[in-house]
Amino acid sequence: MQTRRRTQRKEMEEKKRLDIEFKTTVIRLFNNILKKADKINETYEDMKREQLEIIRDQQEMKKTLSEIKNIIQSPKNRPEDRKNQDKDLEHKEPEDTPLQKGEDKRIQKVEDSVRNLWDNFKRTNIRIMGIPEEREQDTERVLEEIVTENFPLGKEIDLQVQEARRTPNKRNPRRTTPRHIIIKIPRAKDKERI
Q: From CA 70, how far away is CA 66, in angstroms rounded?
């Protein structure tokens, strides 16, 4: 009987040991599953954040695209719209976006090419740049002053100024440089001598 009890005890101890091993294995598996679930949850949260960032970027791109479409489709050639745009620009502070900078550069290139064409077409015109706006009333005398100060033969030349004006007629508040002075001389030979 004692042997039987011993064997039963051994069997009981073996069952307890196996039961403890089984329980620890199950607990380890649950812990591993919980850790993996936490990692999956973190990955899900990261993906959710990235998705929100992508959605924000898409919305920003749509907004930029609609602004570009509005700029492209805006009727800038209509004088009444230009007046309204000028009034709006006076009230708003100008923002320097890359798109505006590109447009300003394009406008500057067009103005320069038109100016060069106009100067070639009107050979008797002299364009003076960089004269401050304060000297507005002296536009006719500006050429005479420049010629007498800088050229010794300028005193001998009898300059006849047909017309002197600033261009463009209206001052652009966004432009930092002073308007150019156009001086029209009746003879192209006088311009060549200067």
A: 6
